[in-house]
Design goal:
With about 160 residues, the chain is mainly β. Helix content is about 10%, strand content about 40%.
Length: about 160
C-alpha cells in the first residue's frame, strides 16, 4: 500500500507540473531518447513528494521514477535535514553535488554511524538495505537508478504521510 501511495504521489506531481523534467531538446523526435543538456538554471524544482520529510525540493532530470526503467533526480535539502531509516526495493545510487551528505546504515538513526560525504562523492545502496541520511549545509544530491523507486520507512511512525496534520 505504501509503495502504491508513493508512486501515485510522485506521478501526480509529475503530471501536475510541480516536478518536471528538464526541457527536451529542440528538434528531438517525440518519444525518442535524445541528447539533452541540463544546466543548473534549467532545472525545474518543486516540493519533494510528501513521503519525504517537508523542506526539500526535487527535480527530475530524466525518466520517471514512478515507472519501470532508468531515472535520474536531484534532491535539494537544507542544513540539518534528516531522512529517517528507510529502504528501497531497488538499488539507489547517490552522487553528492554540493553540501555534505551524511549517510549511515541501520534500522534507526545513529549519529555515530553517519559518514559525511563531500561534493563529488558517490554511494551505492543496494535494494532493501536499511539506511538513513542527514545533510550538513544546504545539500544537493543526484539519485539515479531503475524505477519504480519508492521509499519505505523502517518505523512506519517516521512516514510523514502518516503523521497528523
Amino acid at each position: 500500500m505504501m509503495l502504491r501511495h508513493a508512486a501515485v504521489v510522485i506521478a501526480t506531481l509529475l503530471i501536475s507540473g510541480m516536478i518536471s523534467t528538464a526541457d527536451e531538446p529542440k528538434g528531438s523526435p517525440a518519444g525518442r531518447l535524445a541528447h539533452m543538456v541540463a544546466l543548473p538554471d534549467d532545472l525545474k524544482w518543486g516540493d519533494a513528494p510528501p513521503v519525504l520529510p517537508p523542506g526539500s525540493k526535487l527535480a527530475v532530470l530524466a525518466g520517471d521514477p514512478t515507472k519501470e526503467g532508468p531515472f535520474t533526480i536531484r534532491l535539494m535539502a537544507p542544513d540539518g535535514y534528516m531522512i529517517p531509516a528507510h529502504w528501497h526495493p531497488t538499488d539507489e545510487n547517490v552522487t553528492v553535488i554540493s553540501g555534505s551528505f551524511g549517510v549511515g546504515l541501520g534500522d534507526k538513526f545513529d549519529k555515530d554511524k553517519v559518514r559525511f560525504l563531500p561534493p563529488g562523492s558517490y554511494v551505492r545502496l543496494t535494494k532493501e538495505e536499511r539506511h538513513f541520511a542527514v545533510m550538513k549545509g544546504e545539500t544537493v544530491v543526484q539519485v539515479h537508478g531503475t524505477g519504480p523507486f519508492t521509499l519505505n520507512y523502517v518505523n512506519p511512525a517516521d512516514d510523514p504521510t502518516k503523521k497528523a496534520k
